[in-house]
Each structure stands twice: as structure tokens, then as C-alpha cells.
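re the bet — no i am not wrong, look at it urself. input seq straight from the record:
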Amino acid sequence: MSLHLVAVRFDARDPRALGAFWAGALGREIVEEPHGVLVPGHGTQIGLRFVEAATETSERNRLHLHVTSSSAEDQQRTVETALSLGGQRRGTKPLPRNRDIYLIDPGGNAALPHAAG
């Protein structure tokens, strides 16, 4: 028997908004599903599935996606794209170059655009 991991599932208050954010940030399509959306993976990239949360939680979100850019310039473009799609910076210091930049997606989850090199 062979298994193939298709997607990681995340509960979300607004799965369509969160799926649209990550599809835009990753340059992927978004596929509507009965209870949410799928941002399909391809090649070596895993898919992301966002579904409506069955219950409310008062705990902090535990999702933390670490994405890597090919250069400092690509990292800056990634940050600009994420902010234009509704992401927020975590902190107020000037954006560092060639270092990790902490962002928060529209669902309150941490994202970490990292510049390779």
C-alpha cells in the first residue's frame, strides 16, 4: 500500500478568505469544496485545505507556515504580496533584509517568509 499526502487541513472561521490569501501568496489557484476550499499542491508542494471550524476556540492559533524565497528581493516581494492580500506585520521595526520576517495571515496564523542564502 502506498500513501500520498495531498493536503494539510486547517480549521478556519472564514475558510474562503484564508484560502484566497494563501492561494494569492503562493501563486496558486483556489478550488471550492463543499465545506471550504483547497489550495492544491503540485510537484514538491503540499496542498492546503481550509474548512469551516466546527467550534470556536479561545486558544492561540498554532498554524505557522515557513516559506522560503530565492533572494532578499524575492522575500520583499513576498512580504508586499502578503500585505496586499490582507496579511499583517508582526511588530513595527523596519523590515530586515536577509532575515526572517514575521507576518500574520488574515486568520491570525503566523507566517515566516525567509530569504534563502
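see?? Residues 61 and 109 are 6 Å apart (CA to CA). told u. also The beta strands are 7-12, 31-33, 36-39, 47-52, 64-69, 88-89, 103-104, 110-115. so pay up
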